[in-house]
Prior knowledge:
- Helices cover 85% and strands 0% of the residues.
- The protein is mainly alpha-helical.
Amino acid sequence: MSSLPLSGCVFSLRSEIFIVSFTLSSVIFRFFIVPTSAPQNKLFLIKLIGMNSQPSANGQNGLLTYSSFDHHQKKERSSNFLWWCAGAHQQLLKQYPSEHSKYAGIGGVILATFVLAGIAGGYAVYSVFGSWLWTIVFAIVWGLIIFNFDRFLVSTMRKYGVSRGQQIKMAVPRLLLALLIGVTIARPLELKIFEKEIDVKVAENRHKKMLLNDSLLNLETTSAIKTAEAERSRLIGRKEALEDTLHRLQSAYVQEADGTGGSMRRGIESLTLMKQEAYTNAVRQYTPELIQLRSGIAYQDSILSNVRGTTEAKRKVYEGDLAGKVGFLERNKALSDLASEESSVWWSNFLLSLLIILIEIGPVLSKLILNVGPYDIALAKEELLQMAESEHQLRTQKEMLIDKHKLIRQRKKEVSEELVEKLTQMQRENMQKDLD
């Protein structure tokens, strides 16, 4: 009965030895018989070592599964996108792990310029049209244009096999173009950041414009108003003089009739009738002129009313135009006015512009100042080999074409010599026949 537990222990020990032997044979087969890349070998060895360790998150006790490798592949694909943004040769770059972070960083900066350009372009379009559809469309298109420019500038710069002076010559136009793009991107973002201060300055500028417009309108109508008012004053003066004369003549005959004036004797009909006749003649004489004076005064009043009404209408139209949506150029002018009036705004504006410009020229500048890496050497080698192969093929084709032309010329020469020889032979034969 005691031999049964002992046999069970022996069987268990043999099973453990078999498992260990199988594991070691798998490792040997994996690393020495089937050649694979070093990162995969390392990952496989770590998984095998941790097979009997603590349970993993998926509850499979650290055993290898397909999902374990899928996580690594997904992570690698996410970094490949940044390499693509940097314009790198991905298949070649994968062979040099020390270069991965460098080109991932360059790709991240280029991707950041795409985001900044999209925001800036979208805000500029929204400030002009006020439509979200056009804003989104233009933001995406403008961001892709700037992204493609930056990617082209970085991907076409070469490090290995190019002197420092030649690299600087190559980088100067790229830096200038990146600088121009940075300034273009920076301005709309500055307008958005200082939006509240710009709104206050826009209101102040509009008030100044209204005052200037009022002064211009007044200057435009001053001559007409002064002429009309002078003529109106003359007509009113003449009208008042005539009315005063008639009033005096009327008062004279009335006072003569009631004895309060003139001869101071009531009832002298001859004097009363004489003064009454003088008043009647004056009324008859001055009435047409008074009618003309009143119509002339009314005409001058209408002129003044029309001029003032036209001025007020122009003022309201201008105020209506100013009350519309604030445009991009108006906001830009307001920001320039703020920067010229306040040094703090100028410095904030300058530093923000400098930051955005540095972000824009960052990929080109970093590509210029970075040391030559193994990827640069391998890329130059691949390109030079391809160029050499293409040049060799062209040279070979050229040589083949030259040899072909030589053969053709040689064949033509041989044919010509044969024809000449035949003709000579025929002539000799004919001469011989003639002699015979």
